[in-house]
């Protein structure tokens, strides 16, 4: 809102642009007022009743209001009271416009919050003069209101400064008291730092021991790989030789049966030798299977990271633990058809082996402490979930210690 200092108060408004709300239920009066105000470059908002007047006031926040009093539904008195309630401490002039001058009605309008009045028909010059007078009062009120706000802010600032000075004084007093205990606190801090240093040194030693243990495990992997490689070659030779021997024996017994009429003894001997060879083949197949699992478990001939199937890793660990379980533990598996994952197969094998070995140990400890305990059970399940693959391993053992959990 800009104040025009060199305007003619009888022909121009002193505020530009002037936003003015005109309220009347007479459409002809609204048209006349719109013509008068538009010519003077004002921005009028026309309302044909009290309800619309309140809505337009909330939306546009005009500089001044011209209000008819005699209207249906929400009349001018109620609209003035509602607008004053919306304004609070802010001052916006409200001029009533009536077709009659009744002292009682005018007094009621003033009590509701009206500031001046006009009678119909409205004279344009009188209208402009009244509006300018109210605008000057509004400017004075706004200046005074702003000064009150500034004075209030200054008083609050002075009060905050006084509180800050008082707070600073108390802080200085507290600092003087705190300085008396500074040496004691420094000594305590020194002791805490020494304790922390000792703790960290102890943790580093533990980490060194764990690194040594990991190096030992790596050596075991290398040893297992070498043993598996060394055993694999002679096993292949032995199995090949036994296969050749089996073929030759079959051919030999066929020839014997053709030459001798009494076949019963030869047939019995043949069956007996076949059973011995079958047991030998089963033993060799088991050794070959163990060698293959050792090679896989020690990650022989594989890259450090590759595609790995978790179901295969779990089965490898179960095969290595089969002798340890010695048919004293029932193992139930429920494997879904899961995709391969990219990981270190060596680490996954070790992880599966450690968890299953812990389960076996927990069951054995329970059976030692409780001779009549039920037979050991280990349940293993793999399944696909929304965010990956889930592996569940359960046992009915005595539970794991903290050291075993850390593995």
TrEMBL record:
Which domain of life does this protein belong to? Bacteria
Q: Would you indicate the residue range of the signal peptide?
A: none
The protein's enzyme class: transferase
Every copy of the Response regulatory domain together lies at 19-135
Enzyme Commission no = 2.7.13.3
Tell me which InterPro entries the record gives: 2C_system_His_kinase, CheY-like_superfamily, HATPase_C_sf, His_kinase_dom, HisK_dim/P_dom, Sig_transdc_resp-reg_receiver
What reaction does this catalyse?
Answer: ATP + protein L-histidine = ADP + protein N-phospho-L-histidine
**4-aspartylphosphate carried by residues:** 68
Keyword Isomerase recorded: no
Q: Which GO terms describe its molecular function?
A: phosphorelay sensor kinase activity
What is the protein's name according to its record?
histidine kinase
């Amino acid at each position: 809102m800009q104040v025009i200092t060199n305007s003619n108060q009888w022909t121009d408004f002193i505020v530009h642009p002037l936003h003015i709300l005109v309220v009347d239920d007479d459409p002809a009066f609204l048209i006349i007022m719109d013509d008068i105000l538009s010519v003077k470059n004002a921005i009028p908002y026309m309302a044909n009743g009290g309800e619309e007047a309140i809505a337009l006031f909330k939306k546009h926040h005009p500089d001044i209001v011209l209000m008819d009093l005699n209207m249906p539904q929400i009349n001018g008195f109620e609209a003035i009271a509602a607008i004053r309630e919306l304004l609070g401490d802010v001052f916006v002039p409200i001029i009533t416009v009536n077709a009659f001058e009744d002292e009682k009605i005018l007094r009621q309008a003033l009590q509701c919050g009206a500031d001046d009045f006009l009678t119909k028909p409205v004279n344009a010059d009188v209208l402009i003069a009244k509006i300018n007078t109210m605008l000057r009062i509004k400017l004075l009120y706004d200046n005074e209101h702003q000064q009150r706000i500034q004075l209030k802010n200054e008083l609050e600032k002075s009060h905050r400064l006084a509180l800050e000075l008082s707070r600073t004084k108390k802080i200085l007093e507290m600092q003087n008291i705190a300085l008396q205990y500074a040496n004691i606190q420094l000594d305590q801090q020194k002791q805490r730092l020494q304790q922390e240093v000792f703790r960290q040194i102890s943790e580093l030693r533990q980490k060194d021991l764990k690194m040594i243990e990991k190096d030992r495990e790596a050596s075991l992997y290398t040893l297992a790989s070498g043993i598996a490689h060394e055993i694999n070659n002679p096993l292949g030779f032995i199995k090949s030789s036994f296969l050749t021997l089996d073929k030759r024996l079959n051919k030999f017994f066929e020839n014997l049966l053709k030459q001798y009429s009494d076949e019963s003894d030869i047939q019995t001997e043949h069956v007996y030798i076949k059973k011995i060879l079958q047991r030998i083949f089963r033993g060799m197949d088991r050794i070959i299977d163990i060698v293959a699992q050792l090679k896989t478990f020690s990650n022989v001939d594989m890259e450090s990271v590759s595609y790995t199937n978790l179901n295969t890793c779990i089965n490898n660990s179960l095969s290595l633990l089969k002798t340890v379980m010695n048919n004293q533990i029932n193992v139930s598996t429920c494997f879904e058809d899961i995709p391969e994952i990219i990981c270190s197969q060596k680490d996954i094998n070790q992880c599966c082996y450690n968890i299953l070995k812990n389960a076996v140990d927990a069951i054995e400890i329970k059976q030692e402490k409780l001779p009549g305990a039920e037979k050991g059970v280990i349940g293993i399940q793999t399944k696909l979930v929304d965010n990956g693959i889930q592996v569940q391993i359960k046992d009915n053992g005595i539970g794991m210690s903290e050291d075993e959990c850390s593995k």
